[in-house]
Amino acid sequence: MATRAQFENSNEIGVFSKLTNAYCLVSIGGSENFYSVFESELGAHIPVIHTSIAGTRVVGRLCVGNKNGLLVPSTTTDQELQHLRNSLPDRVVVQRVEERLSALGNCISTNDYVSLIHTDLDRETEQLVMDTLGVQDVFRSTIAGNVLVGSYCTFTNRGGLVHPMTSVEDLDELSSLLQVPLCAGTVNRGSDVIGAGLVANDWAAFCGLDTTSTELAVVENIFKLHDAQPGNAVADLRKSLMDQLA
Questions:
Q1: Which of 54, 58, 85, 144 meets the CB 3.0–4.6 Å disulfide criterion with 163?
Q2: Res 206: pLDDT
């Protein structure tokens, strides 16, 4: 199910939160209302961790992660790093990255199996993405001509939403790279910055408060959230894998 939320009058909730299948990071200093939206939906299944990164609240734009790992910029303090390692599940690897393009959430988009990265990212960073996040493939790509792939798309293991001006050819190409169905669309009443207005995992999604019911319906359809439960996502993946092997 997709839920609307707002962080201190801002609809860009993807700036202040990061959601994966194993954990959720939310920025410190928000209202109790913002936290309760996440905790009521996720609290029974995954930890919801309150944190800052590099002393700022824009945690969703500075870090990137999936169920296997979390990459944070080199400006992350030792205290923040220790807090994340203490709070995250044991199997999640936390790694600092020495990278000139330090807003990793803007430059990298990932699910549990494949990552899209900014075309100018260092080779070392690309290798860290592969090793820390445990993905099988890393692709350098653009979305509708934009190099900030993390800002202009959000995708999970079940589907993805990309910039509304993405051409049909690009959509097909990205879909075949990621091996998930993709759809061009908007959030927050016409905003094309998908990564900032939407966070999603395999069974839940959160959008800004301005998101229209039509946009919400598109999100629920493409991320297959209607019947999604934390257990179902794994069962579906296993079933599709068995189908492929058969």
A1: 144
A2: 96
Are the beta carbons of 18 and 199 closer than 8 angstroms?
yes
Cα–Cα distance for residue pair 204/41, rounded to 1 Å? 8
The Cα–Cα gap between 3 and 220 comes to 10
Question: Is residue 29 pLDDT above 90, yes or no?
Answer: no
> Distances in Å between the alpha carbon of 68 and those of 13, 64, 76, 91, 133?
23, 11, 19, 7, 5
Residues 101, 128: contact at Cβ < 8 Å?
A: no
Question: What pLDDT score was predicted for residue 188?
Answer: 95
Q: Are 171 and 204 in contact (CB under 8 A)?
A: no
Cα–Cα dist 91/61, whole Å: 23
pTM of the complete model beyond 0.85: yes
Buried b (16+ CB within 10 A) or exposed e, 146-175: bbbbbbbbbbbbbbbbbbeebeeebbeebb
Assess whether pLDDT exceeds 80 at residue 234. no
pLDDT band of residue 107 (cuts 50, 70, 90) is very high
Could you give the CA distance from residue 55 to residue 10 in angstroms, rounded to a whole number? Answer: 19
